[in-house]
């Protein structure tokens, strides 16, 4: 049940194919037993108003180095500033993330944690659960027709899934697959270009098609005005670089939320 990655174009294809090599080469590591059940990601997003999912992000293919940060410390600052969930990149090469970052964040905050990675193998789902994640990212452009199978496998592993799309066609595929939490990425992962009109456009299309689940706007957000434009249209927004890059990520989030 591994997706056919030869058809994934651009940077996304490169990252996904490399990820599969790494996953297949890795020796499964036993994880220490988790203390308690992780909090619900879906419930955190469904809370009134626009929920912020704040991301722990060190580097990316589009921005290069972002910050040399301490994952647990940044997550605590996000939690104090009002984030409702924390996203942790665990892809090691293109994003300088790690499983250890996810475990550290899970231990540091009571918020649900999203494992942000390129899921290309079912093993990564059991692994996410064992690391303490409440949810995983599933990218339709990577998984294609296997999206539904991975969604079911995530549920069976006790995880919520944020299903990511970046155009109308992918959105329709995600709906057919039964996605309940849909993220629209403003960044085209094959070209890395950001266009903030993407999320509202695709969200409108999804609502027209009758999607009644949770909607998340992803990537490129830097200002209060941009967030205000999402109120009432999205349940949540995923913000990484503009927070992580700030010397004081908590203060950056408070400014975005208008609570300074
Ligand atoms: O740093 P930004 O522009 O605020 O974006 C955050 C998040 O949306 C972005 O990291 C992201 C969205 N989907 C992804 C898939 C893989 C890696 C990263 C991502």
From TrEMBL:
- Provide the alphabetized UniProt keywords: Amino-acid biosynthesis, Aromatic amino acid biosynthesis, Decarboxylase, Lyase, Tryptophan biosynthesis
> Which transformation does this protein catalyse, written as a reaction?
1-(2-carboxyphenylamino)-1-deoxy-D-ribulose 5-phosphate + H(+) = (1S,2R)-1-C-(indol-3-yl)glycerol 3-phosphate + CO2 + H2O
Looking up PROSITE patterns in the UniProt record yields: IGPS
Q: Name one GO biological process term.
A: L-tryptophan biosynthetic process
Q: What is its EC number?
A: 4.1.1.48
Name its pathway: Amino-acid biosynthesis; L-tryptophan biosynthesis; L-tryptophan from chorismate: step 4/5
Show the PANTHER family listed in the entry.
INDOLE-3-GLYCEROL-PHOSPHATE SYNTHASE, TRYPTOPHAN BIOSYNTHESIS PROTEIN
Please give the NCBIfam families that the UniProt record associates with this protein: PRK00278.2-3
- Kindly provide the name given to this protein in its UniProt entry: indole-3-glycerol-phosphate synthase
Origin organism is Oceanithermus desulfurans NBRC 100063
């Amino acid at each position: 049940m591994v997706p056919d990655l030869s058809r994934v174009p651009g940077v996304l294809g490169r990252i996904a194919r490399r990820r599969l090599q790494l996953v297949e080469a890795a020796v499964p590591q036993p994880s220490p037993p988790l203390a308690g059940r992780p909090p619900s990601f879906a419930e955190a997003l469904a809370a009134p108003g626009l929920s912020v999912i704040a991301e722990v992000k060190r580097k990316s293919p589009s921005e290069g180095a972002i910050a040399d940060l301490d994952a647990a410390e940044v997550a605590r600052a996000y939690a104090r500033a009002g984030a409702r969930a924390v996203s942790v990149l665990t892809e090691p090469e293109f994003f300088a993330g790690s499983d250890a970052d996810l475990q550290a964040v899970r231990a540091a905050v009571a918020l649900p944690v999203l494992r942000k990675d390129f899921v290309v193998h079912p093993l990564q789902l059991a692994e996410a659960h064992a690391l303490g994640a409440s949810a995983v990212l599933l990218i339709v452009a990577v998984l294609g027709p296997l999206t539904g199978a991975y969604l079911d496998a995530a549920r069976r592993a006790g995880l919520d899934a944020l299903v990511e799309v970046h155009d109308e066609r992918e959105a329709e595929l995600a709906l057919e697959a039964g996605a309940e939490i849909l993220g629209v990425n403003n960044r085209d992962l094959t070209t890395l270009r950001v266009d903030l009109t993407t999320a509202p456009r695709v969200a409108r299309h999804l609502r027209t098609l009758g999607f009644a689940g949770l909607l998340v706007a992803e990537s490129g957000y830097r200002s209060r005005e941009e967030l205000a434009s999402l109120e009432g249209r999205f349940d949540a927004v995923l913000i990484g670089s503009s927070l992580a890059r700030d010397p004081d990520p908590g203060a950056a989030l408070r400014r975005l939320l208008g609570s300074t």
